Amino acid sequence: MTSANPGSAAHLLDVEDLSVSxxxxxxxxxxxxxxxxxxxxxxxxxxxxxxxxxxxxxxRSIMGLTEGRGGSVSGRVRLNGREIQSLPPxxxxxxxxxxxxxxxxxxxxxxNPVLRVGRQIxxxxxxxxxxxxxxxxxxxxxxLSQVGIPSPERRVRDYPHxxxxxxxxxxxIAIALACEPRLLxxxxxxxxxxxxxxxxxxxxxxxxxxxxxxxxxxxxxxFGVVASRSDEIVVMYGGQVVExxxxxxxxxxxxxxxxxxxxxxxxxxxxxxxxxxxVINGRPPDLVARPSGCRFAPRCPxxxxxxxxxxxxxxxxxxxxxxxxxxxxxxxxTAVAMGQEAEAGAADGG
Amino acid sequence: MAGSGTAHLRDxxxxxxxxxxxVVRFRASRNRYVQAVSGISLDVIPGETVGLVGESxxxxxxxxxxxxxxPPPTSGRVLYDGVDLTTLDAKQVRAIRPELQLIYxxxxxxxDPHMTVEQIVGEPLDIWKRGTQASRRVLVAETLEAVxxxxxxxxxxxxxEFSGGQCQRICIARALILEPKALILxxxxxxxxxxxxxxxxxxxxxxxxxxxxxxxxxxxxxxxVRNASDVVVVMYLxxxxxxxxxxxxxxxxxxxxxxxxxxxxxxxxxxxxxxGSQPRTLAGELPSPLDPPSGCRFRTRCPxAAGRCxxxxxxxxxxxxxxxxxxxxxxxxxxxxLAPTAAGPAVAGxx
Amino acid sequence: xxxxxxxxxxxLIAVLVAVTFTVSLMLSLPAGDPAQVLAGPEASAxxxxxxxxxxxxxxxxxxxxxxxxxxxxxxxLGNSLRTNEPVIDSIRDRLPVTLELVILGQLLALLxxxxxxxxxxxxxxxxxxxxxxxxxxxxxxxxxxxxxxxLIRIFSVELGWLPTGGWVPLSENLGDNLRAAILPVIALALxxxxxxxxxxxxxxxxxxxxxxxxxxxxxxxxxRTILLRHSLRPSSFSLLTMIGIxxxxxxxxxxxxETIFGLPGIGRLLIDSIGFRDFVTVQGVVAxxxxxYVVVNSFVDVLYGVVDxxxxxxxxx
Lengths: 350, 351, 317
Hints:
By secondary structure, chain A is an alpha/beta fold. Chain A has helices at about 55-60, 90-95, 105-110, 115-130, 135-145, 150-155, 165-175, 195-210, 225-230, 245-250, 255-265, 305-310, 330-340, and strands at about 15-25, 25-40, 45-50, 70-80, 80-85, 100-105, 185, 215-220, 230-235, 240-245, 315, 320-325. The chains are: A alpha/beta (about 350), B alpha/beta (about 350), C mainly alpha (about 325). At the B-C interface, loops of B face loops of C.
């Protein structure tokens, strides 16, 4: 079940009930299950989840990159009101790199090792904007300078292995921005980088986004990154959206136990040292043989009988805060949810 | 920032591990060398956990390996329980190994995929001929339980059947089965998921209590290091920037690099800059280790750098008034509360 | 870079010395009198002595080798024991034939293999892939002499399109030269073609799984660009290595083809000389083949650097 996407105006990105599954020797693997979300121009949506949550597969299927790799996709993805799922391959290729661009996690493996960096930036412009090679090269130098690479005229002739990790990621960003996309999907853009470089890159992305008024989807496992950089946060678990709210609201008032548990298990710098971290026992769910009921129930400290029987729907609490839980942490939220379930006082206090 | 100096070392007879002026040099090509570690010193008191933190290229992993002589450092002393390991021959070093174990970053590739868990965890006992067949089996089972694995469910399986977190538990069991005195952990949780990280960190705390371990915890994640360590050593480009008791380091960092590192942690933003202004990120790139900056190596990115920083390499000296807080900087953020001469060697004389 | 080339050159010398010395050494191996063996059972004592004299068999092996080496670098590979003609002349006459066969053979093999591999890698599991797989395996498993005989049977005997054998040098008549070369080249190229196709297809499949290919797709690039510009080069390393190795094997393989088609190449020269126990020629031909092999492989080494920038010796270090 999904909750309806709010807003009458067309969103920049509108994902409706997207599901992606793969055939594996063990059976059908459901990587993404009924995900809906929206992104607006100039805003950042943060998607947070651990490995196996489906967040990367989600990003790739928005770009249409999963079907060629054995994924079967259902649901709708609309970019600026235009449905892109059903587009013929050639038109889809026109959109990729042009209207929506993607940044991958590891810049060393996402850049072609045998091609010069300038070439890899220029080829998108030649392809999409009809630039000549010379024009594209000039623009590539400009882009390198915009992403903060010193001596861009020299760097443009370098190969990826001649650059440091931070610089490579800047090149990847330059490639993504080259054709002035409306939407940027950043899949763990800083995970492979040092923390000081991470800060620089996030800063760069934020600046570029502001200047170009792009919508951005920031996918990460790092709550800190998502908290400080997104307007809205979506938490994913087991292929589903389990909570969605504005970042301020989510940090203040997480309702789904997974979200709170996740936030508590991260070592932060304001807790006493040598503290025992709060743990989420167990392992991420098997996406082939899925648990019946709530995907998180096997690991949830508050699980009840109902949790293992029925999958909770994505319910809405006040203030556009959605959560997927029968017994959420916030008492006031259950009052709203009860309107949908007509069950009284079943909430187990937090 | 230079990491020269030994002002921060405590009495030699108190330390279980004491590293003095460690230098590790690698050959980059025909006649060019990289000094991964350029004269660092640190010490660890029994029962203590020292966190060694820094970004890529700072030399922390190399330091960890040099301590266990894998491979032996280019120069410097590594004293374990009073004995300088660098002066021992291979056989003598080998004899120490049961007491000083290393845990690696990637748990999955640290395990031989062809061996069963029982063989893996039991191998150290075989190598060192401890106990009998029967007693070994018992000890393996006990150790597996201690690290949170069910022996019945794991003994006969092979590493590929386990997750990253479980593999790391197996590695820890393997390291602990010889009841070492000290553990050197090289990024033990970096490749694990967040929720699993928490489990492993808790496990390490438990093991430390149970086995009375002394640890050197190498990591790039400051929050992780903070949770696990008593003392933190911050490294940059082969040198030590700052050494302090954990709370002091985080509460009042003395070195501009440490300050920059802390400012870069996304989570920390809100609490340190409550007014919501964007904190400054550390500018610039890591200089090439083949050709590090003269004087203080951090000066090319330091907002406080002055002429002196290019000419003279700073040595570690006292900072703050907590007693165990040292910084290698000409213009630290926190000066020594007492007069400089009382705290450490004179500033002149770099390495 | 210069340092690198000097090292390669020294390596070349070392290999050549090792190979040719080993050949020299072989004379000392058989039981009995090597001169007698070489001269043959019907030779008179005088003839045996002549052989011993010519080959300096009474000297120690190292000295003998050094003498040979000294002569060889000035181009004197001795005289054939059979015809008494300078070995270097026979080689000079016959080398171009073999070279032409080998070069055309490699080109033909690649002409088939590269497009077939790309196609198969792009659509794995589909009919095109299956078809090329089967044909590659057929090509690899067919012995070249059977193929050669089959080709002669069909194209020369039945259809009469092409000659059954014989050679027309390039300098005389291009058309006739090519007509003489086609069948032998096909026979020679068959096995390498199959090997190259399998190798390249497998490497390309692996490359296509890489993140940078997905990145290229995410940029909106089309399949042709991705296949040709982004995946071909990173997938060619094994192929390059193989080309180097096959070049040497082809010279050996050319023996069969040259014999069946009656072509005056050095493969046939080698086999004939062995049959005639013409040791001097054998030593000379082996030396030439060894040189060719090392040169080709050094060239392949340099090509690695061209294809993969990570391998290049950086001037800046």
